[in-house]
Amino acid sequence: MDKELTLEIAMKQLDEIISKMQSDETDLENSLKLYEEGAKLIAFCKERIVNAELKIKMISDEADDENEV
Amino acid sequence: MDSIISVSQLNSYINFYLQESPVLADVYVTGEISNFSSNSSGHFYFKLKDYKSVVSCVMFAGANANLSFYPENGMKVLVHGKVSVYETAGLYQIIVNEMIPAGVGQLFLKFEQLKKRLEAEGLFDVDHKKPIPSYPERIAVVTSPTGAAVRDVINRIKNRYPLVRLYIVPTLVQGDSAAPQIVKALEYVNSEKLADTIILCRGGGSLEDLWPFNEESVARAVYESDIPVVTGIGHETDTTIADFAADLRASTPTAAAELSTPEVTAVFNQVQQADEYLYSAVRKIIDDYGNHLNIQNNLLEYCSPLNKLNIMRDKLSSSEKTLKHLISVGFNRTNARLDSYIDRLQALNPLDVFLRGYSIARSSEGSIIKSVSSVKQGDNISVQVSDGFIDCTADSTRR
To answer: What is this model's ipTM?
Structure first.
């Protein structure tokens, strides 16, 4: 799975997979592939949501540097 | 002068002339209130004067209902309205639709002018507004690090969507150096690509307190930000120039936090639904294939030689049955015909007559006696009945 995967991308890909599976043109083999992909994305999303913990960073120094420029 | 006109015509013409002027239809005038009075209908009548001149003003009840202060003589104000002629008195006056105290009035005027100018320039164009990411990863909060606003935003996001990484970019939000700091902060977040959404916010305050957010430089920095900016400045009723330039305007910092993030439980439900949908979709596809396979299998079985053989065997057995049936039907029919012959023969059998009590008398020669004349006294007669013969002797004959 992509290292750069974000929730936004995952949700978008899920939407795409679902609409592909809704189309009649998807054959059995492809739909199984899509299902596998979708299941991975779902696992990723759930993991992201369940383990979410707000991270806060104060960027005082950098901002000061910027201000001095 | 070609023609002579009446006073009314003159005043009417002047009124018409004034109303045609775009400048007089939309004027801002500052001055000091004098001769203030309010009549029973709630209309305000007063004069506005400066060191040299004076002008009559009227502010009707509908317009003055929302005034945040009560006007008094000597008060310096800014009024907005149009100039019109009171024809009966030959008097021109300002019909006031807005009035604010002069100190605030200066800022208000600046605000209105800047708003108009930037609007004309396209800084508030809807087409330019960027969509706010549905599932932000990183949000930069540009605000005072000590105010209530930053706490409100953090708390709201913590409860609502703790998936994000929040970057607090501290700036002053009040006073002369606030605007340049806000501009630098916005530029910094953009150049560092620090976030996918920026929340620019500040708690409530007076118009003067919020003023940095009405500075042109801030509006331009908001407009030029490649990262979408959500503003939450002051309270519900406050609107700043930065709000107009923002990609999305929220009424408060808390509302800005809400508009920048989805609700985590809603997202979870969405994922759950996708999960269920995906499962049922793949289930359905597999079932469809299974059904199709069954149909094919049935077809194949139907076409197999074994099946053909079975079909032929069935045909044969049914033909056999039919044949048997036909034979038995024919046999029964013959039988029935035979029975009917027997019945008819039976009806003709003379023996049948004996059963009903008739008998036949025969002479000793065996001829049937049909008349007394063929019998003499002492003749032997044989009388046949149903079950045998009675031998008799004739005693006498009578007629």
So the answer is: 0.76
